[in-house]
Design goal:
The structure holds two protein chains of two kinds.
Chain A: H1 2-15, H2 17-35, E1 39-40, H3 53-64, E2 71-76, H4 79-94, E3 100-104, H5 109-115, H6 122-128, H7 137-153, H8 162-186, H9 195-205, E4 218-225, H10 232-249, E5 257-261, H11 263-297, H12 301-324, E6 327-328, H13 335-359, H14 364-392, H15 399-438, H16 450-461, H17 463-482, H18 499-511, E7 518-522, H19 525-536, E8 541-545, H20 554-573, H21 585-609, H22 612-622, H23 633-643, H24 645-670, H25 683-689, E9 697-703, H26 710-723, E10 728-729, H27 730-764, H28 767-790, H29 802-824, H30 829-852, H31 860-896
Parallel strand pairs in A: 1-6
Antiparallel strand pairs in A: 2-4, 2-5, 3-4, 7-9, 7-10, 8-9
Chain B: H1 30-41, E1 46-55, E2 61-71, E3 76-83, E4 91-95, E5 100-105, E6 110-114, H2 138-142, E7 143-153, E8 156-165, E9 175-181, E10 187-194, E11 197-213, E12 216-226, E13 231-241, H3 253-257
Antiparallel strand pairs in B: 1-2, 1-13, 2-3, 3-4, 4-5, 5-6, 7-8, 8-9, 9-10, 10-11, 11-12, 12-13
Classes of the chains: A mainly alpha, B mainly beta.
Chain lengths: 897, 258
């Protein structure tokens, strides 16, 4: 029945080739219209099941909070220049109102100026109160020393967490700036105006307002978008616009380097590179496949027609796929390249047999009739088996594998249909056309590979030897396969040298902060506080951002208010200014020396305690104890006071005069005892943490290391789960994805093998033959993984998805060989290998060429898949020609004996 | 700063003889094993030179060499840094099982008292904390012990014990799993589980290179792996002596400055 239909169809396409081509073109146009609405997304979360609660939470946060998506400008260079650069570029970035909601590059100064002390812990406030009891320089320094000793020397716990270590560094930084300003007044380098004293007060009370690293060489500018990262086109346009602003501004700051990172630029880079890659690799794949085709068949136009046929298949698959899918993901975006590698096989069979028939002198309709009769059944069996294998992947729970199964299944069916419908019509039309132009029909060529025939002869003579070689090689690769490793670092899948990735590492080095944050929402500020407090104690978390930081609890505010009232009382009552003179400078020198000792001791404790940041900061102030030439800036200041007391006292009196008033006013304002409530927060802070309805509060938790080190990712995610199982974000999602893919990959591979076996059983009507056809596939699987290990390759999140694919692809070789044995007889190995061996070699090479083009991709994830598939196809071909004929040979001998 | 200076490294056979477990006629119980471990880990007096390598917050390694003196089963401990030169002469005195800690800085000639109380805290940037080695009777007082069986570690047959935190315990660990060498009663490996998650392995201590010093089996190398911070601290015993008579005067402010 099938043969009759194929034969009739072959004749029909040859006679009505114009109609068939026209019909296919109409179908392609309709499919193209449908496919045009398909988008491409490179978000890893799109590979996960939609119904997963963590994915739902992630998507909800991304939609509701635009600041869950971000762009970060990382500026590097000398301190004053990077600050100038920030001041210059921020207004320009802010002017991109279409894309930019807000730019943060300084702390929320206004709010801090009004309520700063209310945000400090009662324990710390209690120690700080004394500092404001007398603002004159000597008592101020005395109280700073008292406070300093109580906080950092007498309490070892003060440095025991990263947050506390950072606080210590900030405190020291403010103190260092204060001392530097004092030094300038002593040296008469103050310039006369009070701005310098004012800035010392700000730095002392609030700290460095910029988001700047401890070594002052890296500055961050956070750009909050008006859109969510899900709006990919806008993400690309936004990143390009900000990059253009950077490119225009950077020439004015030759010492400054600046680049973009954060999830939006990373998403943009992934999109741009992957789109370019897919375009390039598709063209290269098609060109190489056709080139190989042309060289092998020594024909020009027929292979080009096979290429057109493939393009039709891809368009139709995409068009039909668009009915079921809204977008192509990281995996499915590669379907065109994969289809080129796979779909060309069918064309090879058709063109090969058609040429043979034409060489035999048959006219086109008869030759096409015979062609479909002889190779149509194989194509249909192969197509149905492979597509069934792909469709089986749809049982997976992860969208990545599920959608890949769908689109590749559709692609194979589509390639099968166009090869049986369009290609025969193309071939006949081509002959007619060439005949009209040249007045004689093209001369068909038949190509033979004698090597395979000779190999088959050797195998027929010594099947046991070849089987032993096959078993030894397979054993070696099984051993290797068992030692294969997984590379969990998704950044290793990104293009090399990507600025957005490199800057992530810069951020981690400079700030102990990775931009790949985790997040969750809560229904109250109290819940946020509870979660944030838990998160702050977690070793793998570097920074926790929560609205609770800005709205302390009622009891906290009550306790703090007592100290704030005391501070205000001091500031209101102790207003006597006492000038310094040569006579009382010794008191100041004494306090400076005490401060030097305190900072030195703190540095020593930090050194033995391994707290490098604090140690480094202390060294900046009191010198490196290991370098005798590096003196203490405090002791140098004390020396200057001793050397020139008169001038020093005069300078310090001016300093005292200029700082007391702003210090009193600003500290008074900051010591506002009025309770803070949600309504008092400025909109900028509210927007960062609250959703549009104002009933959910966002908490973000930044890991302190690169989360793509799997061991750290596991620890970080485990600790997040302990804080609250609802926590989402890229790191936990990635771990979830690894779990899904591991589970799905195994399940899908096993099920695909079963489905393939079932189809083969039905096709061969013999379980023994079906199982035999599976041997090269199973052995090939081990060869593939073993070869990967041998070449130093690892499994990745992307190429792991290729494993179930190879089941669908690799089975074809064994099926074709066994089909031919059935036709030729089990003793005809040389003939089988000469003819079918040639075909499977050609199809394997074209498939490898197609997949191999993925290895040219800059996006290394695609490359890892390409490499795996190339090795997989090679392995399946090798195991097919090495193991199957040997087994058949031994079976034949047994049968004969 | 909670760890007795070199409690982890000084295991005194004191009241038991090596190999005595094998001579037991009755099956040994978990409680007996823990009592013996505790005795091993609390020597009467000791003096030693140690090398400690820590991982700093920026993931660099830093090595310190110091002299350590302990008295009254570790109740009094004094550490004096020898290397690197930056901390030479710096001393740490811990009294009352490290409830009171003082630090002496030779450059400023000041002695500062560090007020601290948390048992869970890191000692000197290391991954050790005071209770990690069961200083005092912590293993007995804070945990219920259970013998899980026997297992080989480092080629030696060990008792495998599970220590579960008692309800009113103040320990910073919910559970310990310990492999104790059947012959020497030295714990070769101790796994420390997180304070509020008994399935989360927080730290792992590995003792190796056991030598008999003054008739006492002593691990010359101890490494603590912090599984959460992904850092490690190794302590090497360069020299040690248990047959010493340390004056009380050594464990004073004057002793720190000597």
């Amino acid at each position: 029945m099938r043969d009759k239909l194929l034969s009739a169809w072959g004749r029909f396409t040859a006679i009505k080739s114009g109609w068939v081509v026209a019909a296919m073109l109409v179908l392609a146009v309709l499919a193209a219209i449908s496919a045009s609405r398909l988008k491409v997304t490179m978000r890893w979360s799109d590979l996960l099941p939609l119904e997963d609660p963590m994915v739902q939470e992630f998507d909800r946060i991304i939609k509701e909070y635009t600041n869950a998506s971000n762009s970060i400008i990382v500026v590097q260079g000398p301190e004053h220049r990077i600050k100038e650069f920030a001041e210059a570029i921020v207004p320009k970035v802010e002017s991109l109102t279409e894309y930019v909601e807000r730019v943060d590059y300084r702390i929320d100064e206004d709010f801090l100026r009004q309520h700063g002390f209310m945000l400090a812990k009662a324990k710390d406030l209690k120690k700080t109160v004394g500092v404001f009891s007398d603002l004159n320089l000597i008592p101020l320094l005395t109280h700073i020393n008292d406070n300093f000793e109580e906080t950092y020397i007498a309490d070892e716990e003060a440095l025991s967490t990263k947050e506390k270590e950072d606080d210590a560094v900030r405190y020291l930084d403010g103190l260092q700036f204060w001392l530097q300003v004092m030094d300038r007044y002593v040296s008469n380098l103050h310039g006369g105006n009070s701005a310098l004293a004012d800035s010392a007060v700000d730095r002392f009370l609030i700290g460095d307002p910029y988001f700047i690293s401890q070594d002052k060489k890296v500055l961050l500018i956070m750009v909050e978008p008006t859109f969510s990262i899900m709006e990919i086109d806008i993400a690309v346009a936004s990143t390009d616009s900000i990059q253009a602003v950077l490119d225009r501004t950077l020439p004015e700051f030759p010492e400054v380097q600046a680049g973009l990172t954060g999830n939006i630029p990373l998403q943009r880079d992934e999109m741009v590179y992957s789109t370019k890659d897919l375009r390039t690799t598709s063209v290269v794949a098609l060109a190489l496949v056709l080139l190989f085709f042309i060289l092998s068949f020594r024909m020009w136009t027929a292979p080009l027609l096979a290429g057109v046929n493939l393009i039709l298949a891809i368009i139709i698959a995409a068009g039909v796929g668009a009915i079921f899918l809204d977008s192509l993901n990281i995996m499915t975006s590669m379907f065109a390249v994969i289809l080129i590698g796979l779909g060309i096989d069918y064309s090879i069979h058709i063109i090969s047999v058609y040429n043979e028939r034409r060489v035999l002198g048959e006219d086109p309709p008869a030759a096409m009739q015979q062609t479909l009769l002889r190779s149509g059944a194989g194509i249909i069996t192969g197509g149905i088996t492979t597509s069934a294998a792909f469709f089986t992947l749809m049982i997976a729970s992860s969208r990545g594998i599920k959608e890949m199964g769908l689109i590749l299944g559709l692609g194979i069916v589509s390639a099968m249909i166009t090869t049986l419908a369009a290609l025969p019509a193309f071939l006949v039309l081509r002959e007619r056309l060439v005949g009209r132009i040249r007045h004689w029909p093209p001369r068909p060529v038949s190509v033979e590979f004698k090597v395979l025939e000779r190999f088959g002869e050797q195998q027929s003579r010594k099947p046991v030897l070849f089987l032993i070689i096959g078993i030894l090689l397979t054993s070696f690769f099984v051993y290797q396969a068992l030692h294969a490793k997984f590379d969990y670092n998704y950044l290793n899948m990104e293009p090399k040298g990507l600025v957005s990735v490199e800057l992530q590492e810069t951020m981690i080095e400079a700030f102990d902060l990775s931009p790949d944050f985790a997040m969750m929402t809560t229904s109250s500020i109290e819940e946020s506080r509870e979660i944030a407090e838990k998160a702050k104690k977690v070793a793998s978390i570097s920074l926790v951002e929560s609205i609770s930081e800005y709205v302390p609890s009622g009891s906290q505010q009550e306790k703090r208010s007592v100290h704030l009232q005391k501070i205000r009382h001091y500031l209101e009552t102790n207003t006597t200014d006492r000038d310094l003179s040569e006579n009382n400078l010794s008191g100041l020198i004494e306090q400076l020396e005490r401060l030097d000792m305190n900072i030195y001791e703190l540095g020593q404790l930090a050194f033995t305690g391994g707290q490098d940041k604090v140690d480094e900061k202390c060294k900046q102030i009191v010198g490196d104890p290991e370098n005798p030439d590096d003196g203490s800036s405090i002791l140098q200041l004390a020396d200057r006071l001793r050397d020139n007391p008169e001038s020093a006292a005069s300078g310090l009196n001016l300093f005292q005069k200029q700082y007391t008033s702003p210090l009193r006013e600003k500290a008074y304002e900051m010591a506002n005892p009025q309770a803070i409530h949600l309504g008092m927060l400025p909109e900028t802070i509210k927007k960062r943490f609250m959703n549009r309805d104002g009933n959910r509060f966002l908490i973000t938790m930044y890991p302190k290391e690169m989360v793509w080190d799997f061991e750290f990712l596991r620890i970080f995610t485990r600790q997040l789960e302990r804080i609250d199982p609802r926590i989402s974000g890229t790191p936990p999602l990635m771990l979830r994805l690894i779990d899904y893919i591991g589970r799905d990959g195994l399940r899908a591979t096993l099920l695909t093998i079963l489905v393939v076996l079932l189809f083969l059983w039905l096709d061969f009507r013999s379980l023994k033959m079906a199982l035999m056809a599976m041997i090269p596939l199973i052995a090939g699987g081990f060869w593939m993984v073993g070869l990967m290990k041998t070449f130093g390759m690892m499994f990745t999140l992307v190429n792991l998805m290729g494993v179930p694919m190879i089941v669908g692809i690799g089975i074809d070789d064994g099926v074709h060989l066994l089909h031919r044995y059935r036709v030729e007889g089990l003793t005809k190995t040389p003939i089988v290998l000469k003819s079918t061996g040639k075909a499977i070699m050609l199809t394997s090479i074209t498939t490898m060429v197609g997949f191999g083009s993925l290895m040219l991709a800059k996006y290394r994830g695609f490359g890892s898949l390409g490499s795996l598939l190339v090795l997989g196809v090679f392995a399946c071909f090798m195991t097919t020609v090495l193991l199957l004929p040997s087994i058949v040979g031994i079976m034949t001998r047994k049968g004969n004996s | 700063m909670k760890l007795k200076a070199f409690t982890p490294l000084i295991f005194s056979a004191g009241l038991f003889c090596a190999g005595s477990a094998g001579a037991q006629t009755n099956p040994i119980t978990a409680d007996t094993i823990i009592q013996r471990v505790t005795r091993v880990m609390n020597p009467a007096q000791s003096k030693g030179k140690m090398k400690m390598t820590i991982t700093t917050t920026s993931k660099k390694t830093r090595t310190f060499v110091y002299l350590a003196y302990a008295k009254n089963h570790g109740e009094k401990t004094l550490m004096k840094y020898l290397e690197p030169s930056r901390v030479k002469g710096q001393a740490i005195l811990m009294l009352n099982n490290a409830d009171d800690i003082w630090v002496y800085f030779p450059r400023t000639r000041r002695v500062r008292k560090l007020a601290t109380h948390a048992k869970k805290q890191k000692m000197e940037g290391s991954d050790f904390s005071y209770e990690d080695m069961g200083a005092g009777d912590a293993f007995i007082d804070e945990f219920e012990s259970r013998l899980l069986g026997e297992e080989k570690k480092q080629g030696k047959l060990c008792y495998e014990l599970e220590l579960t935190r008692k309800p009113k315990s103040t320990s910073g660990y919910s559970k310990l799993v310990m492999w104790v060498d059947k012959e020497s009663f030295v714990p070769l490996v101790i796994d420390y589980y997180h304070d509020d998650d008994s399935t989360l392995l927080e730290k792992e201590l590995v003792c190796g290179n056991i030598e008999i010093i003054d008739d006492i089996p002593t691990p010359m190398q101890v490494v603590m792996y912090n599984k959460l911070d992904r850092t490690q601290t190794s302590m090497e015993l360069v020299e040690v002596s248990y047959k010493v008579d340390l004056e009380d005067d050594l464990f004073t402010e004057r002793g720190m400055k000597k």
